[in-house]
Specification:
Blueprint: E1 29-33, E2 37-41, H1 63-74, E3 84-85, E4 92-94, E5 103-104, E6 107-110, E7 117-121, E8 125-131, E9 137-142, H2 144-149, H3 151-162, E10 169-173, E11 183-185, H4 186-195, E12 203-205, E13 210-213, H5 215-225, E14 231-233, H6 248-251, E15 257-263
Parallel strand pairs: 3-5, 4-6, 10-14
Antiparallel strand pairs: 1-15, 6-9, 7-15, 8-9, 8-10, 11-13, 12-13
Length: 264
């Protein structure tokens, strides 16, 4: 008996301004990161002359704009994202277990097709993760607190526990506040040093016990601790590019981008 074909999932082409990772993973791994462009939000949540694609709850944006933006986002996906209620910690969930209510975690992983992992960011570092063969994917919200707490190590550990054999995991770093803009105090360095032996190499000293911190460099250190050495991206600064990116540190009242990944 001939099995019926699964229905084809048709998706719109992504807005040209959005970020599509260029990394060596299986074709069935799909991912992208939104920018300010492509939505309907206005005012400080706008998109530099066009409507803004703010998808962040609790940002002060009009509820109808946020709802419309999330509906627009769904048009580029095989299914609605499995949203997270971010805690700036090291919690990881199976995206398949997330229902209508966002899960309290800072990373999710998936090994079932068309389950969309998602985090929202505006200066914190979004890290996309996939094993090279396309068994499992994940995404992490890696601000400095999450990095200090081990969010990337936890996300990689979750992926390895869900895959067969020893998966070869590759990472992609999205836009975040860059090393020339992220001024922090001594307490940030101290907390990082508890989990990252070489953390100080990612801090440039300033006067008065202040430092400029390099989130992508810290993420690479955290990933290396769990044998993830193939890391791409990490070239965009949200703070210094207001036309393209939201930035909480720069604007305080602002929107959120989405970083999404799934298996086709």
């Amino acid at each position: 008996m001939t099995q019926p074909k699964r229905p084809e999932v048709r998706r719109l082409p992504l807005p040209a301004d959005w970020i599509v990772p260029d990394w060596p993973v299986a074709d069935r791994v799909r991912s992208f990161i939104t920018t300010r462009a492509g939505g309907v939000s206005a005012g400080v949540w706008g998109g530099g002359g066009t409507g803004g694609m703010n998808v962040g709850v609790g940002t002060g944006d009009a509820a109808e704009s946020l709802e419309r933006n999330r509906r627009l986002l769904n048009e580029f996906l095989p299914a609605p994202p499995r949203w997270l209620a971010l805690r700036h910690g090291a919690g990881v969930v199976d995206a398949e277990s997330v229902g209508d209510a966002p899960a309290a975690a800072d990373a999710s992983t998936a090994c079932i097709a068309r389950v969309v992992c998602c985090v929202t960011v505006a200066d914190c570092l979004p890290v996309l993760l996939a094993d090279r063969m396309g068994q499992v994917v994940g995404v992490a919200h890696a601000g400095w607190r999450g990095l200090a707490g081990g969010i990337l190590q936890a996300a990689v550990g979750s992926m390895r526990s869900r895959a067969e054999g020893t998966p070869d995991i590759v990472a992609y770093l999205g836009p975040c506040i860059g090393p020339g803009a992220f001024e922090v105090g001594t307490e940030v360095l101290q907390q990082m040093q508890r989990g990252l032996p070489d953390a100080r190499r990612a801090f440039r000293p300033l006067a008065g016990d202040k430092f400029m911190a390099d989130l992508p460099a810290l993420a690479r250190q955290a990933l290396a601790l769990v044998d993830v050495h193939e890391v791409y991206g990490g070239a965009w600064c949200t703070y210094t590019d207001p036309h393209r990116f939201y930035s909480f540190r720069r604007d305080r009242v602002t929107g959120r981008h989405a970083a999404l990944i799934w298996l086709d």
